[in-house]
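By convention, each integer encodes one residue's backbone shape. The lines below illustrate.
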Amino acid sequence: MSIQREPIVALDFYQEYYKSKLSDYHLSEEQSRYASVPLKAVSECETDGTRHPVVILYDGEPAGFFVLQGWEGVKAYSDNPDAILLRGYSVNANFQGKGIAKESLFALDSFVKRNFPDKKEIILAVNHKNTLAQHVYKKSGFIDKGIRVMGKKGELLIFHKGC
């Protein structure tokens, strides 16, 4: 009798060796309205030292991606200098439906505490039409405090989560 184990979801800062796997990254049509592919975000991070690219791993394979940004990103949405901004969050379409989003967002708390110990809050901006993402964020402990900001693609809801 073999024992099956649950696949592990982990977070890691982007490294060059993830590049080839992330170059074959697909977003659903819905996601592509709100997020860019990881390598585009990585190039933005290379020119902006306040952005930190993070890879979501599923059993060691890159399955998702997001960027964490300090005050330079936060200040557009919050006056909390102890907050960090989660931006550009996505899960590769080939890995969706496995609970990766939920697990990675739960893992985010300890990742931020370990790597950004001065940060006490995680915030994000989600488009008001992106109801699927709103649902996932809320299930992962993010709270909508009613703050709204206009973005390039419409109204953004600002969600908060302590860490």
